[in-house]
Design brief:
411 residues; pyridoxal phosphate; alpha/beta; cysteine desulfurase activity; 2 domains; EC 2.8.1.7; Aspartate Aminotransferase, domain 2; transferase; 4-stranded antiparallel sheet; Aspartate Aminotransferase, domain 1; 7-stranded mixed sheet
């Protein structure tokens, strides 16, 4: 276990000024910063072991391959998959979900089937299913939300039925800050002979994930949201499904034999990993997992909850602010979307940036949710374990300063 008071020192990017103010980085739902341990892993690979994997018999190639596959084992243990064959390296969550729509979806979804998602999904967990439904003549169905932003489980139990082929839902919303009951939803899906697909992008960095306990058939997440590099992610899938699925990319390294008119594929997991993979990214993702394990995922979740318990009531005290999702901090993750009366979210984000506070503004790749809430956009502050209560205070102060700024018509 690490002391949260000293963790911030591992992130050199945080020690800078933006617009002559100390940086407060609160855009962690978009991407997280990287500790020196991960940066060192990237540098070490390129300076010492740079070679392609699974191909050469020379020393550098063997070292690179060993480190690459060792990272796969780290991922397996981190999410408690049964075996490394169930762990596929991807470019990120988006790639994993697209692979599933193309490979599993094209093979197993038929005309008249239904695909169940929700109004809170990220575009990456909507568009692939829209495209699959159009290709196959299937129907896309949406689970509605309660007034406080939770999935309406009463409606879900009616929508998930004998026509359902796929249920694909976010574990944690990137806007509303809710944690969805994936284990219960997986049981509903399986009771109706459907598969359960989980967008784990906003969950995996912040809490302990156990894909076997969840009984998820597939689980996708991104390295860059959990202190790893960009361009690397993971798709977990149960062996029983992966063995029946065809690859969606073809070329080097995923083949067993190539003949003139047909080819055969390698065994799992390599049949899905065509071409030269993001070797450095996978190795550095392993370093990120080591780093998170050293801190402890349960400790990370508890610490972030303490930050939410601290900052959410302070936000509620600000006149003219609206926060979205659960109003009780106990049920809200560190993703907090909000608006200020009479001020466009983009203006809010620009004004906060002038105070050194980095938040996101826009639809957050969740336009159906914005339409559902009858909103054009929101501002969003998202916390991670290297943030502090002082960061939360700076956010509150910057919001107050923004209100005063616009109140007096400075623009």
């Amino acid at each position: 276990m690490r002391d949260f008071a000293t963790i911030r020192k591992d992130f050199p990017i945080l020690f800078q000024e933006v617009n002559d103010e100390p940086l407060v980085y609160l855009d962690n739902a978009a991407t997280t910063q990287k500790p020196t341990q991960v940066l060192d892993a990237l540098r070490h690979y390129y300076e010492n072991d740079n070679a392609n994997v699974h191909r050469g018999v020379h020393t550098l190639a063997e070292r690179a391959t060993a480190d690459y596959e060792n990272s796969r084992e780290k991922v397996r243990a981190f999410i408690n998959a049964k075996e490394t064959a169930e762990v596929l390296f991807t470019r990120g969550t988006t790639t994993g979900l697209n692979w599933l729509a193309r490979s599993y979806g094209d093979a197993f979804v038929e005309a008249g089937d239904e695909i169940v998602i929700s109004y809170m999904e990220h575009h990456s967990n909507i568009i692939p299913w829209q495209q699959l439904a159009q290709r196959k003549g299937a129907t896309l169905r949406y689970v509605p939300l309660t007034d406080d932003g939770f999935l309406d489980m009463t409606a879900a139990k009616e929508i998930i039925n004998e026509k359902t082929a796929i249920v694909s839902l976010a574990y944690v919303s990137n806007v509303l800050g809710v944690i969805n009951p994936i284990k219960e939803l997986a049981a509903l899906a399986h009771a109706n002979n459907a598969v359960m697909i989980v967008d784990g992008a906003q969950a995996t960095p912040h809490m302990k994930v156990d894909v076997q306990a969840l009984d998820a058939d597939f689980f996708a997440f991104s390295g860059h949201k959990m202190c790893g590099p960009t361009g690397i992610g993971v798709l977990y899938g149960k062996r029983q499904w992966l063995e029946q699925m065809e690859p969606v990319e073809f070329g080097g390294e995923m083949i067993e034999f190539v003949n003139l008119y047909d080819s055969t594929w390698k065994e799992l997991p390599w049949k899905f990993e065509a071409g030269t993979p993001n070797i450095a990214g996978a190795i550095a993702l392993g370093a990120a997992i080591d780093y998170l394990n050293e801190i402890g995922m349960e400790q990370i979740h508890q610490y972030e909850q303490e930050l939410v318990d601290y900052v959410l009531p302070k936000l509620h005290e600000i006149d003219g602010i609206t926060t979205y999702g659960p109003q009780d901090p106990e049920h809200h993750t560190g993703v907090i979307a909000f608006n200020l009366d009479g001020i466009h979210p983009h203006d809010v984000a620009t004004a906060l940036d002038m105070e050194g506070v980095a938040v996101r503004a826009g639809h957050h790749c969740a336009q159906p949710l914005m339409n559902y809430l009858n909103l054009p956009a929101t501002a969003r502050a998202s916390f991670y374990f290297y943030n502090t209560k002082e960061d939360a205070d700076r956010l509150i102060e910057a919001i107050q300063a923004t209100k005063e700024f616009f109140k007096h018509g400075a623009l």
